[in-house]
Amino acid sequence: MQLPFIIANWKMNKTIQESTNYARGLERYLVETQPKATVIVCPCAIFLPFMSQIQHEHFSLGVQNFFPADKGSFTGECSLTMFDSVDISYAIVGHSERRQLFKESDELLQQKVIYALEKDYTVIFCIGETKEEKEQGLTEEVILKQLEILSTLPKEKKGTILIAYEPLWAIGTGIVPSRESIQSIVQIIQKYAREMLAPCNKNIYTLYGGSVTQDNIDDILNINGIQGVLIGSASLELDTFITIIQSV
Ligand code: PGA
Q1: For ligand 1, is residue 233 a contact (CB within 6 Å)?
Q2: What confidence tens digit (pLDDT) does each residue in 171-211 have?
Q3: 27, 152, 170, 243: which sits with the fewest CB atoms below 10 Å from its CB?
Q4: Ligand 1 center to residue 174 CA distance, Å?
Q5: Atom of ligand 1 lying closest to residue 171 CA
Q6: How many angstroms separate the alpha carbon of residue 238 from the centre of ligand 1?
Q7: For the packed helices 179-192 and 139-147, what is the interaxial angle rounded to 10 degrees?
Q8: Is residue 56 flagged as an active site residue?
């Protein structure tokens, strides 16, 4: 049985010292307690080689960003090939901060998903509506449109995609959608996965992200169909992150 995914997205935070100390502390805790969770940490890219050298048998590492080509004239970008010597198995694609701040288009996101799957990464694909879209009753439409890019993935290669529903108005705000509304979006995603994504031959899991904390983790993981969480702020302090893992 797949254990719930507990994913830390550190975004652009932490020093090298903080990152490696955290990795050591996390591994120590996981060795002692053997929690029933699949734990993944996505640090700042330049710390990945250092973190991967620290023993991490009990958690995996992920990239927050990459460019979908092995090499070339893409100033400032990193390819997944460049991480070949580093033990990374997860890649975040489509986070709202990448969509909004860096104007990543659906076309680019699709290339990123295809490229990451080709490289045998598990893709953490983020979707979610803005506050305005929610107020206009457009949530379902927006979600389905964002999911569309997954429906044309090459089917020759198996792979795993974690679809993280992250309403933008819940990210970093302390506001979490009601249980019912998360549940209804999960149903929409799962129906879409059954009807439209089945031919693309991928394992699909449904996650939630947006203001997940030690106080609401229980409620969120108890929502039918939720198979994990993507956590920003509450993953930055090791003690808090451990409390969250303990709740699983
Ligand atoms: P948050 O961020 O937990 O700080 O709301 C979640 C995310 O951006 O993935």
Answers
A1: yes
A2: 999 999 999 999 999 999 999 998 888 888 889 999 999 99
A3: 152
A4: 9
A5: 5
A6: 16
A7: 40
A8: no
Residue-level pLDDT at 85:
84
Q: How confident is the model at residue 164 (pLDDT cuts 50, 70, 90)?
A: very high
- Kindly state the average pLDDT of the residues 50-67: 95
Q: Which residues pair with 6 in a beta bridge?
A: 39, 229
User: Does residue 166 have an active-site annotation?
Assistant: yes
Ligand 1 mean position, distance from CA 196 (Å): 28
Confidence class of residue 152 from pLDDT cuts 50, 70 and 90?
A: confident
Q: Is the pLDDT of residue 163 over 90?
A: yes
User: Counting atoms of ligand 1 from 1, which one is nearest the CA of 164?
Assistant: 9
Residue bearing tokens 């019912």: 180
Average pLDDT over residues 45-74: 96
Main-chain dihedrals φ then ψ at residue 29, nearest 5 degrees: -65, -45
> Is the shortest distance between the CB of 89 and ligand 1 below 6 Å?
no
What does the pLDDT look like over 89-147, one tens digit per residue? 999 999 999 999 999 999 999 999 999 999 999 999 999 999 999 999 999 999 999 99
Contact 231 CB / ligand 1 (< 6 Å)? yes
CA pair distance 103, 13, nearest whole angstrom = 21
Q: At what angle do helices 16-33 and 238-246 cross, to 10 degrees?
A: 30
Average pLDDT, the chain: 96
CB 90 within 8 A of CB 62: yes
Question: How many residues are given for the chain?
Answer: 248
Query: What does pTM read for this prediction?
Result: 0.97
Catalytic pick among 95, 97, 104, 129: 95
